[in-house]
Amino acid sequence: MNRHYNLCRRLAACCAPTVIAACSLALFSAEASQGQSRVQRSTADVRNRPTDELDRPRSKERRTHRGLEVRTNQFFVVANTKVEDARWAAEQMETAWGDFGRLADAWMKGHRHPDFGIGAVQVYIDGDAPKTRELPLCTLNVVGIQTQITLYVGDGRQRLEDQLYRLRKAVGQAFLHTTELDQQLPPWVCDGLASYVAAERLSAGEVGAIKQQEIAAGAPRLGGQQWRFKRAEQDRLSVPLFDDEAAAQEVEFLLTASDAAHAPAFFAAINESIAAANKRRNQENQVTARRGEEQPAALGPVDQLAIQLAKPFGQWQNAPFRGQPVLEIEKSTPAEVQRAEREMAVVLKLARRFATTDQRTVQTRITAFDEEKGMTVLSRKENDRPAPLSELYQRMVAPQRPLWGTLNADDQLVLSSDRAALQEMLGLETSRYRWEADNGRSVLTTIIDGAWMLQGWLEENGEDPSRPLAKFTATKLTTQR
What we know:
Blueprint: H1 2-36, E1 61-64, E2 67-71, E3 75-79, H2 83-104, E4 121-126, E5 138-142, E6 147-152, H3 164-178, H4 187-198, H5 204-214, E7 221-223, E8 231-233, E9 236-237, H6 244-260, H7 263-282, H8 301-308, H9 310-318, E10 326-327, H10 335-353, E11 367-370, E12 374-377, H11 389-396, E13 405-407, E14 413-415, H12 419-426, E15 434-438, E16 441-448, E17 452-459, E18 469-476
Parallel strand pairs: 3-4, 4-6, 5-7, 10-18
Antiparallel strand pairs: 1-2, 2-3, 5-6, 8-9, 11-12, 13-14, 15-16, 16-17, 17-18
């Protein structure tokens, strides 16, 4: 009896750890499976999920072993110089990312998801002398799940503020890589889109001066294509060169020429390219070349569109402002009035573009008869009566009207799908503009800060019929309104 009892005790002692471990493993597996069912990665998600890097203490600014760090949802900036540099770069990146997102609204919606691109980009502002292994310098020097942008601000190099164009263009390339558009669009389209967004908030003079600095000896290369090509050597990729200046001009033409006349076709071609790339991904037996063979890539929808518009592109190079009014603005006019005149010119342009010929003023016809001259009409020729701006807006966004675009007062592209931007341009919420009759013509009138009354109208341009003359009269009000 005692021998049997002792044997049972020994067996229990040996099996107990195994049973406990099995129970613990079962409980852990149940908890893990319960947590793995939640795949949301939003920073605003408060539901239970497995512990990961998002559970670490996150603050907008902190000091690490690498330097001062500023974090946002999509990217974080590290500077070993001063915190003001990191703050400035983070602000500029937010602006550039938003500008590219507004442009991408024309062909995609995934970037509007709250968890899109969390931690996708890192910017490192390096004030130290570059090391040998970092030469030759490159702005986009790491591309993978996370894109790293490096700005060199050491002795003898450009100031950080002078590298704004480079930073904005690198952000555009990072946006394309995060959305995988860099794998679905031709390289010249990606580079051109990034260049367009980079220059969007800069004047032509600023862009020209920056581009001269970019080609100076010792200036860092931008990079941005190193993830697309095979290696030519062990430490060098086979990256085909193309004219980035020509790519920037081609994309600018497709987006802005003739008051954004080609932008809808450009966006449609981008959508076709994305659909074709997704179709190729789903096809079987994609590898059709033998080992060592390289087959030429076929021209895609965007390439075909550029070929079709080769003649208009040449005309645009000679007259890039075709379709835009010529603003007759006096240099002595106050800055706020000049700004209002540029904004009014956009409204006049849209009113002329979407005018109809079925609404006319009723006038009395006066006819004179003379034996020598014959019959002569003395009354004015009837003029088109501009439609109220609220009616003009409904005409612009009518469901049967296809997508169209225009350029606002800052020469930024605005699409008809952006209803809020159109309403703001027309001043509908505040009834900013009204039509009035003046000397037999219809003029657009507005009050500026209660101190100025501004009137504007369009006249035909004898030298260039494609660019009407925008004329204004600004009157100082004696009493503030």
